[in-house]
From TrEMBL:
Presence of the UniProt keyword Signal in the record: yes
PANTHER family found in the cross-reference section: ACYLAMINO-ACID-RELEASING ENZYME (PTHR42776:SF4), SERINE PEPTIDASE S9 FAMILY MEMBER (PTHR42776)
Keywords: Hydrolase, Signal
Protein name in the entry: Alpha/beta hydrolase family protein
Membrane-spanning segments: none
GO molecular function: hydrolase activity
Top-rank taxon: Bacteria
The keyword Transmembrane belongs to this UniProt entry's keyword annotation: no
Chain positions covered by the region annotation Disordered: 345-369
This enzyme's EC code(s): 3.4.-.-
Annotated SUPFAM superfamilies: alpha/beta-Hydrolases, DPP6 N-terminal domain-like
Amino acid sequence: MNKKLFACMFLLGLALGPVAFAQEKPPITWQDIPSWQYIRTGNTALSPDGNWLSWVSGPSEGDLSLTLRHTIDTSKYEFSIGATATTAVFSADGKWVAFRESPNDAAAKAARKSRKPAYSKLHVVSLPDTQQVTFDKIKAFSFSGEQPEWIAISFAAPESAPKGENVPKGADLLLYHLSSKKNFNLGNVAEYTFNKDGRYLAYTIDAHEQNGNGIFLRDMNTGITIALDNDKATYSRIQWNEEGTAFALLKANKNETYETPVYSVIGISRINGEKTEKVIYSGVDDENFPAGKGIAEHGRAYWSDDLGTLFFGIAKLEKKDKKKKSNGADSTATKDSVAVDSARLAKKDASTTSPVKSAATAKPKPKDDIEKPDVIIWNWQDKRLQSAQQVQQQRDKNFSFAAAYHVADNRFVQLADSNMRNVTIGPKQLYALGYDYTPYELNNSLDGQTYVDVYSIDPKNGTKHLLLKKYYQSAARSLPFAPNGKLISYYQDGEFYSFDLEKKQTFHLTALLDASFVNETDDHNVIKPATPHFGWSEDSRYVLIRDNYDLWRIAADGKQAVSLSDNWKQKKLRVMGAYSLYPDDKAIDLRKPQYFGVFNDATKQAGIALLNAGKTDLNILFIDDHSYGSLRKAKYQPVFSFTKENSTKSPELFLSTSASLNEAKQLTANTPDQEQYAWSAGVRLIEYVSGHGDTLQAALYLPAGYEEGKQYPTITYIYERLTQGLNNYAMPAFPGGGFNRAVYTSNGYAVLMPDIKYRLNDPGMSAVACVIPAVNAAIATGIVDSSNVAIHGHSWGGYQTSFLITQTNIFKAAAAGAPLTNMISMYSLIYWNSGSTNQPIFEASQGRLSPGYWDNWEAFTRNSPIYYIKQVQTPLLLLHNDKDGAVDYTQGIEYYNGLRRLNKPVVMITYKGENHGIAKDPNKKDYAVRMLEFFDHHLKAEPAPDWWARGIDLMDMEKHLEDRAF
């Protein structure tokens, strides 16, 4: 080459180097996900004094670390915690922190493979000097009280310990004195718990052969331990009262008369060494106790606030069958009964070809030898389907009916029974609410429109008073108690009410308000669904209820109401919910500053508002193009932490020492790997008008490297209303449904997420009316390549995807996960996860079709993908797992076989043993990769993967999977 030409080219290269030779960032791939580093914001803790914040971070797969960050200075400490995320536990005085260290990733996998137990360690760290002590093979731990001097640590049983249901559950319990570092070991401890101030430790012993079993109380100040009760029994479910002055528990004695142990309730009160008062009640010898019942093993036993009553559950007590003899014959059988049986046999039809034995020779077949049919009988009058009874069998077996024992007058009162199974005991135990579904249970199970008779119950004597006849519970589920235990509030026919249980008086709470309390965004087939009820005030004087936008403070008698948000409807601002910052409060204490989430429906901006103590006006502290969450307050100091994120910036932890949350400082640096990859350029909020004339919105997430004027392949992801998540970050991960927004935008796709508004009896057609205009509006922005648009959804989104491709050819490819495809057959199939039929889901929930197809045939067929299957021209990737307990596997099979019969391009993927969403990591990875390969082929003209182009024979599957493993 000419030297002069070379020199010119070299100089030109230098001049253009920074631009021409700049290294573009690569897109993130599925192979990058396992090493992706991020903070587990759900494992964050703030110390009670506000001096320390902890969080957990690490790769998606692998070993994690726990960070302790001082909130005042920049001190920061990191600890390895193995492969399982944990949340640090701070002592109440903020001087100590304890956390688990699980086995590392390699050790955990080896333990799973060898089916050996994997043990955790416990680290206890002194926060003033970060000195720590470690304990191996721990099971659980607990600091003692509000000024803790101790930490109690229970240890896992050794591998050599006997296994099984009836083996003793006791193990070593170590009491570690935090300042002196002295250890005290208690053996064979099964349960333990400190009272509120930490002075007392109640614990149970469960030893070999039940030797020394009992309930014990240790005074942590003196070290003196007393045995409150000893017996050849097991003791469980210790429950201290709130003040820490009394507790209750259960005691189980084996009894030859019954199949299961007979339980008693033990009540401990007025703690005073050996003079501590004890009450034991089993009900077995009480003539007022219901026959065939006993104290329930799975019920919670606890004291009333005044320590006069023990509350607990009762359940069926099975007697042993004493009829069987060692030879299998019925011990109650007599010569006469044998003769009767023989005579009955002799009267058989004379045409029988089998000879009948005489009474002298006939012997009844032992019951144990009888081959019984394996049968389930489904009767049309069953209030619950047989399938539901099977799925819920364990729940039914463990169900306990609320009851009370009044100590002073030795009196038992049953509160719940077979008709009124659900009973809620209110604050201060003054009243209870009982829910009787039996008059409506069958119809409730058929159409899902839930009705119930609601009663008030006097726990002193069990007297019931009908409050609400045929109450429509579908519109609003809860009837919350006021903290004083004398008032309740409820919603009925578009209005809120309160009821004074003492005076038996009803008050119309919303009568004076010029506002609607019917939820305008709830488009399910529910009659007048309610807007949110935020709860009662701590003093029981007010309820806080939101209309569709504004939050109202309404007096308990409805005579006074104040709008705390001052006509936010004009600004399209909603009060979204109240943050719970005071864990000891039973309700919203308006004497303290209260914080609320706020959201702008028009812009999708979010923020936090403050209601100052004793004030009646909400002040918006900030609202912007971010999402905020996880607001916490230190228990004893005005120190606050919260998360902040948007579509391109992952959640970061912020801390403020001001009640106004201003000057908050960022303490974390989340997702450090993001800088290495091409990333989404942001999000656009677009408006469109649906085919029904409604003005709706859609989120359009921009691809990495977005350039104005350039068009991009686009995935339309659908479910219902999705734009409320406009400013949410998408963490790269292997999801249970296969699609991850961050991966797709990083790989050059735009992602469109439209809102769908439904009309009853037209769920599929509503999706058509909303999604197609949204796609057209996105195309009109110039960002979306109209010739390369795909669609994906899972479950309900899968249904709409499978329906949309029967109505339009606007999509070049589609992926439908676990879709409903035939609304007629789906309507009467079983939702196997619960055992119930799908009919209530259609008639009172997401299905939005009512009544049954026999009276609504045209609507059911009009909205079923299967009936338009000939119109499908879009290549479809279909996912349906064979153990799907939500959408029956046959729905996918029916659609797949129909498309295959018509020679339509379709591939169905089934992961063996998986339910509605994919749970196993190898399956998640496999589906995520296949979906991206599918869309890359159809929207980016990448070569077709072999599993799409030609399919994989079963004999070749193992090799195929080996080649794809990563």
